[in-house]
Automatic annotation (TrEMBL):
Annotated protein name in UniProt: Cysteine desulfurase family protein, VC1184 subfamily
Residue ranges annotated for the Aminotransferase class V domain, each copy included: 22-392
NCBIfam families, sorted: am_tr_V_VC1184
Coiled-coil regions listed in the entry: none
InterPro entries in the cross-refs: Aminotrans_V_dom (IPR000192), Cys_dSase-rel (IPR011340), PyrdxlP-dep_Trfase (IPR015424), PyrdxlP-dep_Trfase_major (IPR015421), PyrdxlP-dep_Trfase_small (IPR015422)
Amino acid sequence: MPIDITRTRAAYPALAEGFAHFDGAGGTQTPQSVIDAVADAMRLAVGNRSTASVPGRRSLELVTQARAAVADLLGAVPDGVVLGSSATTLTNTLARTLGAGWRPGDEVVVSRLDHDANVRPWVQAAEAAGATVRWAEFDPASGELPAAQFADLVGDRTRLVAVTAGSNATGTMPDVAAIAATAHAAGALVCVDGVHSVPHGPTDLAASGADFLVTSAYKWSGPHLAAMVADPARWAELRPAKLIPSSDAVPDRFEAGTPSFPLLAGMAAAVDHLAGLDPAATGDRRSRIRAGLTAAQAYEESVFARLRDGLADLPTVTVQPAGARRCPTVSFRLAGWTPAGLATALGAAGLCLSSGDYYAYEYFQALGLRDSGGAVRASVYHYNTVDEVDRLLAELDRLAARREQPVG
């Protein structure tokens, strides 16, 4: 059933402050259920993982519950869920682990559309191994990342292809399954950055073709934690650098140090929040998640259409092109304003947007926009409203009538 926006917004106490949050691509607000889960986990006695005591068993259960929740979210299995502090940290761990087996002449394919967290770890691992980096280019006119080019980029020495499932700069969603099929035909592995795509619709690890898929909970109403999923057999093939006494089991051996048990409680609660977005949904949690995110996707697209069309009607706004399939995210510039100055002016009006390159370094560098400040980004999430969009458009129209005032 359709999203009940009044019910949905009521779940987020921060929205009562009155700010319009168009910065979900950088991090969403937190539902009360997630806040309560974190607080409850901190209120009760929790020890380090152990079967010897109730507090120790509680921490074991929190880890188990978080793995199960993420597995349901992504169509994975709990034993294939590696938990960590951020997508960058997890990707770095994977890159160093895989890169230790690369040799001169091996090749890695990365994309200029990606967040740097799915670029630099692979570039650095390739450099350390003497491997070659090959670049997939986006089309600046259409915003697409053409899948066909990977047939020329991937060969018998390709060890890994890294690609985003959703650009955090423009929202473009490449044909990841087609790219993965090309990579697999050559015997290469595929690492997919799902950080921006996972919050905006159902995700299925197998259907994506990804060997490794990473996501960040704070982009889908959770705390600042991340997870990377793969087939447990794939993890079993890899030997990361680790402390000698730490667990050698899969997936534990990829998780350095003691996790934040309260935040893991919040991660599981955030998945349950997504599973409850469609109150009419039935079945197991995986089914309810898919129903909830499908309803959220339809709602977000309707709100985003208002934003997209409204920006197109403002002659002083220049919008960065995006692909035919996209997350509800747009980057733009306003004539007479630097991106940072515009974001600050909008912030003064209670409108929260990001500016800069948002770590989409290669994208803005390729366009020659990074040195002049990048762009301003607006991202729609399932708690945004058409009224908020109209408020943003009206403020942009007002600011277009005057140029940015110099500082000092």
